[in-house]
């Protein structure tokens, strides 16, 4: 079997809200060009598969049937349905909206199916990660929630525990809402504090309810958090909770909009730090889930100098063919970027990001440490962990 599968189709570029919208399909185009230029598609550990459009029945495992009908209608008539988030500034209408979003979702669900069947160890959908979509409404550039649908497919196929790790700058509210009271699903999101960033949710105290208490974990870090502090926050919470949950599959969302050059967040997390988080998610899958890892894209709006670098590194990580940090980017790719009138990065990051382990002590004067400790207090006891020690 091939170790990793990357789903891709040029038709995924049809998910296009129009000129001037932050979620430009150019970011996916340049990502795939870089993946090819780096020779990743020639790796024997990686296979490319088509992204197939999901059926209504599959989409309706996480979305209301009347919402799916509304998306199809809006994408045909271009008549807004603002009550369902269709035709807003965030989610403008475009012809074929249903088909394009169904293809995103189908790619992730097919990967989940292959993972659980043992056909692959790792799956990647850089066009996925649409974590804001709610059961009955579009939100935050997301029409259908492919991450939630992939998790639902895993549960339907017999998975008893799935861990969802969300590294996007924005809270993974849609996935959390769908599995809020399901103890089988651990939803863990590290994001900019909702008091300064959309969608305004994801407080430390939001920790699930009833039998699912503790299965929702939120780490809201303050604006201007650096990569080193971001990694410290992840290290302080994620490994301990995942260890207790013992997932059979890890699904991770790698929105790269936490970067300092991203126009839609206020964080300052470098590509190198995001790369480290990818490696950690991968390692957790091998440690706890027999290697089963589904990695998705997500946000990311620095289309030429951040997104392609972060997601090419993600594909390389899944293929067990990691790239050289600080290595020169292919000239053919840089030329293609510049031909589009965009700025091209010269190197793939610059090196490891040193960070201070949580074991070195809690600093109550540090805003990130205070946020982390609030999360640990809200969630660790439900897992039998001591928020001050573990």
Automatic annotation (TrEMBL):
Record's protein name: Acetoin utilization protein AcuC
Source organism (scientific name): Promicromonospora iranensis
Tagged with keyword Calcium: no
Residue ranges the record marks as coiled coil: none
InterPro entries associated with the record: AcuC, HDACs, His_deacetylse_dom, His_deacetylse_dom_sf, Ureohydrolase_dom_sf
Family membership: Belongs to the histone deacetylase family.
Associated pathway: Ketone degradation; acetoin degradation
Keywords for this protein: Acetoin catabolism
Residues passing through the membrane, by range: none
Histone deacetylase domain ranges (all copies): 21-316
Top-rank taxon, per record: Bacteria
Pfam families with a match to the protein in the record: Hist_deacetyl (PF00850)
């Amino acid at each position: 079997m091939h170790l990793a599968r990357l789903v891709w189709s040029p038709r995924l570029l049809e998910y296009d809200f129009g000129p001037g919208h932050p979620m430009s399909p150019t970011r996916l185009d340049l990502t795939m060009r870089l993946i090819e230029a780096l020779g990743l598609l020639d790796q024997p550990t990686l296979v490319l598969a088509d992204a197939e459009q999901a059926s209504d029945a599959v989409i309706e495992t996480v979305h209301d049937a009347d919402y799916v009908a509304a998306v199809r209608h809006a994408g045909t008539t271009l008549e807004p349905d603002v009550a369902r988030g269709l035709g807003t500034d965030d989610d403008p209408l475009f012809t074929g909206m249903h088909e394009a979003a169904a293809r995103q979702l189908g790619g992730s669900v097919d990967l989940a199916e292959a993972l659980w069947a043992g056909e692959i160890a790792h799956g990647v959908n850089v066009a996925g990660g649409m974590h804001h979509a709610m059961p009955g409404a579009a939100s935050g550039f997301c029409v259908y929630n492919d991450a939630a649908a992939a998790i639902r497919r895993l549960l339907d196929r017999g998975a008893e525990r799935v861990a969802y790790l969300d590294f996007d700058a924005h809270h993974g509210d849609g996935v959390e809402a769908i599995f809020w009271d399901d103890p089988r699903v651990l939803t863990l999101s590290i994001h900019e504090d909702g008091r300064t960033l959309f969608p305004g949710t994801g407080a430390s105290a939001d920790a699930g309810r009833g039998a699912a208490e503790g299965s929702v974990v939120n780490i809201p870090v303050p604006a201007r958090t650096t990569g080193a502090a971001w990694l410290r926050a992840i290290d302080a919470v994620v490994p301990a909770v995942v260890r207790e949950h013992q997932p059979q599959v890890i699904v991770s969302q790698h929105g790269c909009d936490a970067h300092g050059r991203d126009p839609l967040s206020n964080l300052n997390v470098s590509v190198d730090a995001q790369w480290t988080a990818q490696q950690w998610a991968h390692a957790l899958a091998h440690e706890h889930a027999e290697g089963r890892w589904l990695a998705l894209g997500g946000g990311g709006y620095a289309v030429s100098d951040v997104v392609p670098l972060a997601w090419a590194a993600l594909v390389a990580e899944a293929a067990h063919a990691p790239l050289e940090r600080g290595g020169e980017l292919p000239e053919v790719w840089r030329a293609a970027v510049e031909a589009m009138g965009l700025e091209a990065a010269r190197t793939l990051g610059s090196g490891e990001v040193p960070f201070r382990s949580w074991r070195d002590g809690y600093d109550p004067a540090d805003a990130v440490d205070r946020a982390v400790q609030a999360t640990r207090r809200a969630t660790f006891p439900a897992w039998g962990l001591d928020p001050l020690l573990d």
